[in-house]
Amino acid sequence: MAFEFGDNQLLAAGWEWFVGENGGLTTTLLGLKRHPDLRDLVVSVLMQFARFNFIELFTVNLKKAQPEPKDLLNTYLALFQPLALSKASSEEVNKYFLRFQY
Fold first, then answer.
1. Are 17 and 25 in contact (CB under 8 A)?
2. Phi-psi map region of 65: left, alpha, beta (phi>0 left; psi -120 to 50 alpha)
3. Is the pLDDT score of 89 beyond 70?
4. For the chain, how are helix, strand and coil distributed in percent, rounded to 5?
């Protein structure tokens, strides 16, 4: 679905739906909790919808979706390895941090 949104210049609308109340992020995180073995697929979904909002996803939206610190930490731990191995996510994080170099 995210591919379709991107192809039709509707990625911003897809992002708003994804992180909105009862949107795709909530369902994606529930899927991760129930099926931790599919975390690579979850990272792929997150990368497609958060393509230009990656840092916001991790600093704002995941915290809203996982208000309990234990759940948020478990989510971060589950996603850490696949994110570290993903070229796309490492590029996104590097772009963010490069903005703050002097």
1. no
2. alpha
3. yes
4. 80, 0, 20
Q: What is the mean pLDDT of residues 87-101?
A: 67
The two three-digit tokens of residue 47, written as one number: 């990368």
Residue boundaries of the structural domains of the chain: 2-98
In this structure, the dihedral spanned by the alpha carbons of residues 60, 61, 65 and 68, taken in order and rounded to 10 degrees, is: -20
Are the C-beta atoms of residues 2 and 14 closer than 8 Å to each other?
yes
Gap between the Cα atoms of 58 and 56, Å rounded: 5
Number of other residues whose CB lies within 10 A of the CB of residue 14: 21
Q: Which residues, 6+ apart, have CB-to-CB distance to 70 below 8 Å?
A: none
Instruction: Tell the burial category of 102 from Cβ atoms under 10 Å away from its Cβ (0-12, 13-18, 19+).
Output: exposed
Residue 32, Cα to own-chain centre: how many angstroms? 12
- pLDDT tens digits along 5-22: 555 567 788 889 999 988
